[in-house]
């Protein structure tokens, strides 16, 4: 069994990005600039956004953090998005989720210009991904693809089971794994809350991507020997033995599943760092105006 070390791999990617940014700067080019909008004081969101700011500094990006109280109206927030859209110095814009209930995530997502949508959530970017056109791909699925690629895991002709159908992870992941590309060329089964006998599906899988948000859902008897298992989940579970009072658990019962795998991601230190690295990669492409100029890709 080999651990898929997302932390180590993401550091390699960030080093490559930093090298390219240094080269751009030495030639008098524009420093990539990522702007983040944070509404309210959700603890997990605060931590995640602060990590993104640190990541930007590490690779030589500029970053801007725009903070607002959760009392901000939908109209006011949409106006802020428009202002950042119009700021030519900003290459990438992310709006940290979740948002307060009175604000439509769909309206905010669709208001971000596709060429600045480095989260890859805008319908235009999703559509371009489906068509195989250059696009910003949602950071978690793209990070997983990069992890598979850098560990040279063969995917062509394999059966991939994705558990979870969210717009952010499960659905785009299923499309990426089925695409005519490398990694890709899988036969994909997308399982969800209405799937009957998920165990029968996962036992057929060469590759399992668990992204449903239920701690330790995938058990040892649900995985065949030699499978590749990617654990997207990360949930805080109360644990009085820990100093912070909780433990981080993935969607996979690691102790049961790991001995049966050829490759498996840990939690934490697997998919999470790759997600952050992919966001940086998307921002770099935006600064280079790499997308929305090419009509097709092979």
Secondary-structure blueprint:
Layout: E1 2-3, H1 6-26, E2 33-39, H2 43-59, E3 62-68, H3 74-86, E4 92-95, H4 105-111, H5 123-131, H6 139-150, E5 159-163, H7 170-178, E6 187-191, H8 198-202, E7 207-210, E8 227-231, E9 235-238, E10 246-249, H9 254-257, E11 261-264, H10 271-287
Describe the structure.
- By secondary structure, this protein is an alpha/beta fold.
- It folds into 2 domains: 29-113, Leucine Dehydrogenase, chain A, domain 1 (Rossmann fold), CATH 3.40.50.10860; 139-272, Rossmann fold.
- It is 38% helix and 17% strand.
- It contains 10 helices and 11 strands.
- It has helices spanning 6-26, 43-59, 74-86, 105-111, 123-131, 139-150, 170-178, 198-202, 254-257, 271-287; strands at 2-3, 33-39, 62-68, 92-95, 159-163, 187-191, 207-210, 227-231, 235-238, 246-249, 261-264.
- The protein has a 6-stranded parallel sheet. Strands 3-2-4 form a 3-stranded parallel sheet, with helices on both faces. It has a two-stranded antiparallel ribbon with strand order 9-10.
- α6 (139-150) packs across α7 (170-178) and α6 (139-150) crosses α10 (271-287).
- The longest helix is centred in the first third of the chain and has 21 residues, at 6-26.
- The radius of gyration is 19 Å and the shape is globular.
